[in-house]
Design a protein that fits this description.
The structure is a homododecamer. Chain A is mostly helical and about 160 residues long. Chain A has five helices and two strands. A two-stranded parallel sheet of chain A has the order 1-2. The longest helix of chain A has about 30 residues. In chain A, about 60% of the residues are buried. Chains A, B, C, D, E, F, G, H, I, J, K, L: Belongs to the Dps family. Chains A, B, C, D, E, F, G, H, I, J, K, L: InterPro entries: DPS_DNA-bd, Ferritin-like, Ferritin-like_SF, Ferritin_DPS_dom. Chains A, B, C, D, E, F, G, H, I, J, K, L: Pfam families: Ferritin. Chains A, B, C, D, E, F, G, H, I, J, K, L: It comes from Streptomyces spinosisporus.
């Protein structure tokens, strides 16, 4: 007997569980990447991007909580421990040390694009299995796409 | 020439830099451990401890930001990337999957005690090098000792 | 001529109307069941669950208002009178008098599971008829599944 | 031995218990009647009365909680389950379906007058038995009389 | 190379872009129509409808911002300039000068119904192309249908 | 020697003092008239106008305080005692007892028009004597003219 | 037929009506007296008493509204017009012009004592007729007695 | 001549003064007992009861202020000095050192029951002497009886 | 007979009406221009100017409401319909599509300067006709001149 | 070419620039004088005046910012550096060290009167040159005259 | 085995425990003394000092909680029971009955000076034993010294 | 006899008094320098640095108040008059007139570094004399070092 009962049929649990677990890892990774850039950025746009990064972090932290609790709600224990993030997060991140403001913008655009691409796959994958989870993934995608635009617009012209 | 200038003499930078970097890793680790327990706890005290854990996470997140920004302020770039946390955080943490409420209390008491022991060493180590950093470490210790007590009091009698 | 015009084609009104009316009755029933338990609970977990129940009641009241107004917005007058709830609500509820805390947790898990099961049927039923109503039912399900988990986690081990 | 001890002598418990239980049912009935009218009202005064009804509902819900908790506080378990309300609430209520704004005003004036008449009887009845409960009934009457006036003033001239 | 990159495949961009651009124009038009009525209404229901219109305006403004930013986020620059609204907005609006309260209600019901009808077509059109955009259109429809009901209920009996 | 010194030359004190004293009496009178109507109104527009009247009262009270303190600031003691208001306020007011909603609207339009007419005279009169006082009278006029419009628009068609 | 129906038997209406009408006049008078002193006070305690007087005014205004609405709620139209206050208010008040701070304290103590003495008579008078009105008069007395003490304590030693 | 004048006849002052002075001591004692338990509690219900105790302390502090100021308002100087509390407070309290959570619940139930019993005697005693003071004692009793219930419900089954 | 009566003499109505109507159109135009730039801006200063533009929009929206209601208050119905703005607004605005940040700053400086120039003419024109309207135009000018400075300072050196 | 363009004709810039620069210096001087007195006051009215002084400081700081930004908005760089204040501020201020409360009141009355006298001259001087700047100077005068009264009233009888 | 484990070595526990326990008693004593004066003060400065005393009480209550919880956090159960305060608090306090305002100021200065003197000894005593506790004692001293100054400044000239 | 008594021994007063007085002058100077730059900055980073400077000003103002009140609390009257700041402040500041954004960043970095260097000397100097004052100086240093970093990071690469 499972510890927390699932309201999903067993057939649906695997795809939904994988979608939520990998989204959790991406969001926790994104929150740590965002903070790393927030602390190490240097350059004339320091303050503006320093503040913008905290919006990424805040979004990533809030949604990571929603995603992990959705997983638990479906009887599937989420895993957000440091070693799990380090081992399974595939988002590109910043190098060690100070980061130029132009580098930071590119790093965040890249990380958000990777996260969005994977989310769109999971939206398709969960369509049959659980429209409730799918709806959550759609909300996360909408917000990350908005934040990606705001960094990409800041990134123009790209050879800046 | 360094990117961000330090207001500390070079002789003091090493001990202060190490104290802040290892405190940063401990606090980020604690925030992830706290959330993991927040999501996976089961048992009759679920709600009470679920809420209490968010106070640990909130404390750890707020102080991790202060510590990293103090490091940057001293010209020493902080490192809070996932791989750094996974590689250098030495706090004991929870196992994978659901966690019984009594287990959670013990896990958090153990993690907080490890963090506090290390903080007290750094308070002594930074006394000469930088009283400003030392004052921050004292504040963190005061708050973590308060939270440790609240879990330890909850843990009694220990063979519960 | 109808009193309030519907923006739905007539063919869609029946399934959507039934979905909304029965959801309304379930949510009003749930709000009354939640308050009954809130007032009559006794036992060592009194305070924690007493507070948790008010979150169920608050959720049920807020969504019952949204559901009833959605029905009216589609030109279909909702019915939430006491006699209608008593006659058509099929959620299992508590017995008369004081209720042990462990009983309360089980009563709420059972009521939420019944409500969720019926909501998932209505999500499927309204997919073609009205994606706007379906989206509302998905939101309600997400929230009730979260609350169900928090009581079920508290309920473990079940023979407690 | 009773589950929750009463601070009232046994002789006083019956009259006070009946006063509180019937007030609870009236207030829960009133909250459901108010919402039914809030959702189904049509006519040129729709918005004004739609909003005014939510003040009735808010008052009824808040006082129903206070009344039920006062009953519990006296060791007398309150009963606010749907079937109890449907079976014992004697307030006149609205018919099914859309309601003209003028009808709604009359329905609410009638329901409030019935509730007030019964409250004034209970104020007299509890005078000896428990001045603390009596004081609560006086507060509820003051508020319902104020709301009755505001609907009655709106109802003039009555043949409108 | 586009200025802001799109996360949508090129095939999807046209239908999504058209849906967002025409929704933007409708919402900006609605916000201006709502304010025009808010300022020019006369009659015994002046205050009630004057206030209700500001809720339409507030909704229209908030969603127009979300829609335009969604378009930008997909690499498609939105166009909300005065001449574009005047040239492409097809919602029926009020005549010049003072407006009787009964006329205002009818004008707003008509404008909302036109907007809703077009939104429901776009919900269908974007289903394949972008579920994230579709979800936004569903949210807008839900809110506009609610506001349409509140004016339509106020409009009864229609020959008023 | 005066008790509180004036920053105005003696020649200017008389006209400014009279302008402020008569404005004070008008505003205190208006606040009492507004409350009288707020309490005694009956009719189908009861709630809407009952609330609107409190905005008149709030405006009148706030400005009466500013006007009286402006007078004191100029070394001219203001007089707002009941007998002074009764003896010198020339605004038309309501009769005793219940007031029909249509009557109330007319009463308030009349009182506001009388107050505005007198304020416009004082704006002209204080132009030379004290531009600071004049600026205050302009602010009061702007607000009262706005409130007058909102009652007058509600009053249409006047033979209602 | 009365305009607004009373929930009191006719026999009780007269004593309750008189109690409420004379309390209304006292409170409105007190609010005007308090403001007059607030504006005209001079002396070393200016600021402290200037602020304290606004608490008297705020109390008097709030309770005057409650009292007038209680009267209306009982079907008895209240009368708070300037001429009524001037003609029937018997509280002693301040003279014209600047007022020394020591005088102000005495004026307010006297006005409050007069108001309290009359309220205590009305508490006795309404005991049988309407316990709901009596409860309101008790609340007003409690607050005015508190404010009286704070001025009386300030007034010591009285020959100051 | 007394320092602060009383609005009560001399005959009433003694019984009212005693009722208020002994209530003050009980409430100050209760606030100290509540804090002592708040700090020294241990056991699995630590957090839940730790928080609940602060509601007792907050209630006791707020009412102690109201009671002492009521006494002063009647010209009777209250006495809440440490030595007075220690000498005259008769509520049972906790022993020195750590307190098991089950002990704490019993200690608070006992203290609240003692306080309530004495308050009900004073309600009866002040009925003739001062209905304003009696009304305050009724309010305190209502709140303490509510808090007593919440601890008593938590205390069940008592041999826990 | 006019619908809403004017408190201005007929001779003054024309100049005041024209001043208010053309200010209304400028402010509504400015609000749409500001949002267009807010959505379409790209370049390294994206975030800073994106936020700054919302302050322009907020100012323009708030003042457009005040201006239109001032016109209505003077019995002159304002016209803010899309076709009126497109036909009569003469402020220079942005081109279609993405806008470089440097272009945006210039566009807004130009639009604000055009609006300010026209406002200063209207301040002179309304001096005799209506000092109340003039005072409003002065307030708008003060705020727009402040915003113009903040964009112009950002625009330096202009060949940037 | 000027750095920030002016919307004023060159002929007007000199008088407006001088009015704003000298007002800025007076307000910054006043804020420092107010704080000096706030810190060094002694005597029985310490607390009351200590608090009142912070209102002077807050007013002076807020208006100094508005005045300096108005100057910049007109293309005229303001100068608020310490050496400029010390060299050009002509307001009388306090001596070094502790200040008796009666001295403080006189110092502030003197400083405010000097500031007001100079402001009234600048109101006259800017009438033609810039009504927008004049309007700001009028607002500052109104507020400073209010504060002057409150200290002057406190100062009575002056030989105190 | 201790109930709550200490993070301090045993050697440090005694000095830290004594410092915290005696500080707790001083702060609880101060909070009771402050309230006693708050209730019993009479004289022309009543209101100002009555309010100032509540800041002392609020400070004392907040720090007493922090101190007691720090003691518990170190495994040392604090004792704040009435009999402990009465027996061990050595701060001088007020006599019974009404207190003249000048007496009150002296009483509070004396109590704060006694408390500060003892705190400065404990700051020295805990320097080696626990810098975290020392830091808390420093914070309390800073706040009490600030409050002492504000009463001492009010106390001047002392023979007042 | 001193006016305000000191809780420090005389031997400690001189070093502590000098440390506080010179810190006060630095902070007041910094607040004026920060505002000067806030008003006169021009260049593409105008808005971002304009806002950042207000955080410097806010910090400097808040700490200047704390420092001056700490001085007064120790019986040492602080001196923050304009002439004292101008004569004794040694922080480097901006030149007259418009300031390029890059210049502003350098000016603030230089001023903060000068202030920090002097604060660190005073931290050492007050260690023996008064740990309470030292703790305040440590807090100020922590905050100024954080703000220095944020400007220095913005300043990179320095030859920008």
């Amino acid at each position: 007997m499972s510890v927390v009962k699932s309201t999903l049929p067993e057939s649906a649990q695997k795809v939904v569980g994988q979608a939520l677990q990998s989204t959790l890892v991406d969001l926790l990774g994104l929150s740590l990447i965002g903070k790393q850039a927030h602390w190490n950025i240097v350059g004339p746009r320091f303050r503006s991007i320093h503040l913008q990064l905290d919006e990424v972090v805040s979004t990533a932290r809030t949604f990571s909580d929603t995603v992990a609790e959705r997983s638990a709600a479906l009887g599937l224990p989420p895993d957000g421990r440091p070693e799990t993030i380090a081992a399974t997060c595939t988002l590109p991140g910043p190098k060690d040390g100070w980061l130029k403001d132009t580098e930071v913008v590119q790093v965040i655009v890249d990380a958000l694009e990777a996260a969005i691409g994977r989310l769109r796959e999971r939206i398709a994958a969960t369509d049959e299995a659980d429209p409730v989870t799918q709806d959550l993934l759609i909300s996360i995608t909408a917000e990350l796409e908005k934040q990606r635009w705001m960094f990409d617009a800041e990134n123009w012209p790209r050879d800046n």
